[in-house]
Amino acid sequence: MPEPASGAVHPDLRTGAPSPWLRRILRGLLGQERRFWVLVVGVGLISGLGAVALLAVLRFTQHLFWQTNSEHFLEGALASPGWRRFLVPVLGGALVTLVSLVVGQPLRGHGTAGIIESIWVKSGRLPFPRALLRGFVSIIAVALGAPLGREGALLQTGAASGSAMSGWLKLGPGQARVLVACGASAGIASAYNVPIGAALFGLEVLLGSFALELFGPIVVSCVVATLVSRTLIADHPSYVIPHYALTHPRELLLALMLGVLVGGASALYVRGINFTSDLLDKLPSWLTPFMPLVAMTVVGATAIAGPYLMGNGYDSVNMALHGTLPLTLLLILPLAKLAVTSLCAGAGVPGGLFTPSLFFGALLGGAFGMMVERALPGGAAPSGAYALLGMGAVLAGTTHASVSAVLMIFEMTGDYDLILPLMLAAVVAAVVSRRLEPESLYTSVLAKRDVRVPASVPHWLREEGVRSLLSPATQRVPPSAPFDEVVVLLLEQPAGADLYVTDAEGRLLGVITLDALKGHLPDHSLLQATVAADVMDTGVQPITPDLSLAEVAARFGHTELDRLPVVDGRRHLLGSLSKGDLLKRGRF
């Protein structure tokens, strides 16, 4: 193969990266900070164009196999004969199995969880070819009936583009992480026309921080991606629904009740996904590549009776928002959707879990609203309003991110008059779900691999207090304790422990340390007359439970003691805190 002409700009054919010559030009044209912002815009542009391309593939595939487009998938599936409903999903499963066998590894795994792991553990590095392949196979599988979300492909493509650009220009890990989050957020923004909610999703879920330094890049990428999708796809909310309003105090109380119920259902959703995945992990390794085919065969079998479980569920959610689904389906379909979604996700069919959770919540909320309508005829809001609240509540409950959930649902529907009950239901659902299932839909996967990400709450709020590290002070002596008794008790203490001198009411008077005692032994003739009060150190400054752990660490910096006594406002001895426990378990 002939060498390219001198000075030619060409990509590295093995990696797809620009040549070193092109990288040098880019570095020379822009300073580091300006170059980063150019990349932020570039990631948003690529994510938006990638979303347009993938959604075009989705529409083409659905039209080819179902004679319909993505907005009317259910209509085409209902009009199809039973054999087609069965065989088309089976074909999707066969495609995933074939790709898994060709690449030599399954395509399973939660895409968003993998992105979070790449941000916090792998310095923002994602395998670019695998991510693109996974995204393409995911969009085809969803078009063929996989009960998963199309956003999985768009998230993967956006995040992979951010990772690839940071790798090509050899950015540091900090900027690489931000670019990956920018790409993933831009993918969501372009998928659902939700720039505000997607930006907050990137901050709240992916980066775990609302820091102003992170807000700017995320917002710019989401704005650019949304502009591209609005120009080339459509500029309207994802769900066009009637105008709803829930303003009566009774309706706010019903929203609170719905938040509690849906919070429990959200915990069930997370546990159901994880339980099925754990169960399928125990299968023999030789069977793993064929599980997508098995799972999609099950989907095809259920579709013979009715195709409501196939695809991302947009049409069913829209029907619930308009109040046109019967109560029987509103009660049955959420659990059935959870079952087939868990099966396909655990089996290795790539796709998102975001949209199926909207299906789950919308139908549960619609069922709640329809039962309220029957219990309070003429005095309750339409069931579609509660379907909208259910969507937001489940999204908040499964992601533990109530802020971004509220704004996403608002942008998807454009109904501002429901914002108060939506906020209430989302926050309550997130609290209840977190109480029942501490890990979110995404972090639960990472927790199994012992990957921990920072909490998205203020640093000062998640600090452990002094009381959580407190150890009881079992050995105390009165100031009149004889010297020989003091020595025996000190020798019996574990390494680093001291002896505390307290009065009859338990107030701390001083501290006796073995090392200090060695250097200040009194004259042997006076040992019988020496008591604890004569050898205690009254200059040790105790700590109180209201101090932050950072303040306690500063106290340890000014003493050679391995432990410090903890007292209340009246100097009553509560226990002690060791330097080792502080360093091991404290968060500063």
TrEMBL record:
Cell location: Membrane
All residue ranges annotated as the CBS domain in the record: 536-588
Cross-referenced InterPro entries: CBS_dom, CBS_dom_sf, Cl-channel_core, ClC, ClC-type_chloride_channel
GO MF, one annotated term: chloride channel activity
GO cellular component: chloride channel complex
Primary location class: membrane
Topological category with respect to the lipid bilayer: Multi-pass membrane protein
PROSITE patterns tied to this protein: CBS (PS51371)
Pfam short name (any one): CBS
TM regions (residue ranges): 36-58, 86-104, 131-148, 178-202, 214-232, 252-270, 290-311, 323-348, 354-372, 384-410
PANTHER family: CHLORIDE CHANNEL PROTEIN CLC-E (PTHR43427)
Protein name: CBS domain-containing protein
